[in-house]
Amino acid sequence: MSITTRAAVVESAGAPFTLSEVVLDEPRPDEAVVRLVAAGLCHTDLGVAGGGLPFPLPGVLGHEGAGVVEAVGSAVTGVAPGDHVVLSFTSCGACRNCHGGHPAYCATWLPLNLLGGRRADGTGTISRDGEPLGGHFFGQSSFAERALVDERSLVKVDPDVPLESIAPLGCGVQTGVGAVWNVLKPTAGDAIVVLGAGAVGLSAVMAAALGPATTIIAVDRVAERLALAKELGATHTVDAGQATLGEAIAEITGGRGADGIVETTGSTAVLRQGVDALAARGTLVVVGAPPFGSEVALDVNGLLGGKRVVGLTLGDSETQTFIPALVDLVKTGRLPLDRLIGTYAFEDIGQAVQDMTSGKTIKPVLTF
Fold first, then answer.
1. How far is CA 201 from CA 29, 136, 182, in A?
2. ∠161-218-223 over CA atoms, to 5°?
3. Of 313, 255, 257, 261, which is closest to residue 283 (Cα–Cα)?
4. By mean pLDDT, which of 46-50, 143-147, 250-254 is the weakest?
């Protein structure tokens, strides 16, 4: 039986989110119906809403949902009605990367999550007045009071942890943490640099602070965010508007350079400066996404000292193990996400977008 619910619909590229009554398709055997309690707002949502990616509009976005399972399809075994869940990306579960524990690099990741707006077989999940809407965003489209969710997007979590405190784990936080834990893997004495102190960058700072790196440098242009980075574990901060990045990192590291850098800004100019600031055998993780087709020139001879530049999607996380571990860290206060979150009623999604765009709120979380 189909379900009528209220969702935030983007009518066309550049249009605001507007609340509208929509109809969810009947759950298939590998899907579940989730009553949303909270949903994080991410820059990816804003980029798609603005027309930066060819997602079919009108449509329903949202990919950092958290809620309670209401119903499950006949083939769903990982969750049951009443379970608390965090919603993350979906994947096919059958390709080489999925089998290898790297579902963020699923062979069908882009159409299943970001571009298609439909299930893998081309059928829609959301409609309005009998007309299909773009949906199935990251297997969830969670800017709605209820969502039809792929089983592979569902992660069962501890019911004692407030869902509004962990909704951002589905994308932004696991990306920042995964950049440090899954790619850089700092060793004793390493110098880690985080370029950009937004939600992803500050998550990377917190992750680095939980490991053996002894120097953690946060770089941004906003003094308040640099101060927060210091409170969350950064040992040093650099105001990018007042200092030259390479010179500042060289001074802090005694001329060695950075062993690991997380680039979250999406600026190709900043990426290039980061690569130049790496130590021998250092690694830069590209997290920030500039417009499709963006290119950056690198000094080839500068790379011969063993430098690596690695692209990253969603922290290269295996969500069923990674997200529950992050939930435990939130529960014990070791990952203080509450310092990043500002909550907004679902009806105030427009204000949340405005505050995120202006920088007033680092991570808006909608509550239902």
1. 38, 27, 15
2. 95
3. 261
4. 46-50
